[in-house]
Design goal:
Helix 1 links the parallel strand 1 and strand 2. The chain contains ten helices and seven strands. The protein is α/β, with parallel strands linked by helices. Strands 3-2-1-4-6-5-7 form a seven-stranded mixed β-sheet, sandwiched between helices. Helix 5 packs parallel to helix 8 and helix 7 packs parallel to helix 8. Helix content is 40%, strand content 15%.
């Protein structure tokens, strides 16, 4: 079995070498790793650093957004399972085993890593999180998604998500920005695929250190969630219909 790890990257020269080292260090029993960095037209040395580490790199000539980079990765990898890894250090690749296990065992075809199943954020005291507004936005997205799609998950915005390739082949995604994940999960829910959630570790970085997502992206995510609930089912499974016709 092969795991394809897609790393969308945009101006991440400060962290790309270290995250690649951590990804390469992960040992997965009986599973081959395929690592691909999709450089989304970075203006720094992200692509050259990744290449010098012996990693395959695809470079966009023009910035397409995180979702656009992930779509390039999906089309360019060959694994039985596809996992998304951010190019910063917020997430721990040692969680890969937990994230992909439900797919390996056949219990699910999609897995979401949750930052909130075991970790409880604090907004007071010495170790308080500085991102209270982000937390509120995340809870809003979780609540609305669960209500509209009849789910009970705790985190839709965590980086770590894994999918069977056969599932991804059935779904066509139009989004190119951070809302890519939301469109994909909403369509998976409407296709009634089996999804599981597992706990993952998370260490947020600051805007000074390169954090990019803002409240404006949150508004786009909410619009995406509502949009794909309202559109008819034939618009949700476009790729599956085309495959059947072919």
């Amino acid at each position: 079995m092969k795991l394809s790890i897609i790393i969308p990257a945009y101006n991440e020269e400060a962290t790309i070498a270290e995250i690649l080292r951590r990804v390469q260090a992960v040992q997965l029993e009986g599973i081959q790793k395929e690592i691909l960095v999709v450089d989304d037209a970075s203006a720094d040395r992200t692509a050259s650093i990744a290449s010098s580490a012996g990693i395959r790199v695809i470079r966009h000539e023009h910035n397409k957004g995180k979702g656009g980079a992930v779509k390039t990765g999906i089309a360019s990898t060959t694994g039985d399972i596809v996992l998304i890894q951010d190019a910063d250090l917020e997430y721990d690749p040692r969680d890969y085993t937990a994230v992909i296990q439900p797919i390996v065992s056949g219990a699910a075809v999609a897995v979401m890593g949750s930052r909130f199943l075991t970790n409880r954020l604090a907004f007071w005291g010495k170790n308080r999180s500085p991102y209270f507004i982000h937390y509120l936005g995340n809870k809003t997205i979780v609540t609305i998604t669960n209500l509209l799609y009849g789910q009970s998950f705790t985190d839709y915005e965590g980086c770590y998500k894994a999918f069977s390739r056969s599932l991804l082949k059935q779904i066509e995604i139009t989004a190119n920005g951070f809302e890519f994940d939301n469109e994909l999960m909403c369509k998976i829910f409407r296709n009634r695929a089996t999804v599981m959630e597992v706990p993952i570790h998370y260490q947020p970085r600051s805007y000074a250190n390169g954090k990019k997502i803002t409240w404006r992206h949150g508004l786009i995510m909410l619009r995406t969630i509502v949009k794909w609930r309202l559109l008819s089912v034939d618009r949700v499974a476009v790729q599956e219909t085309r495959s059947a016709v072919a």
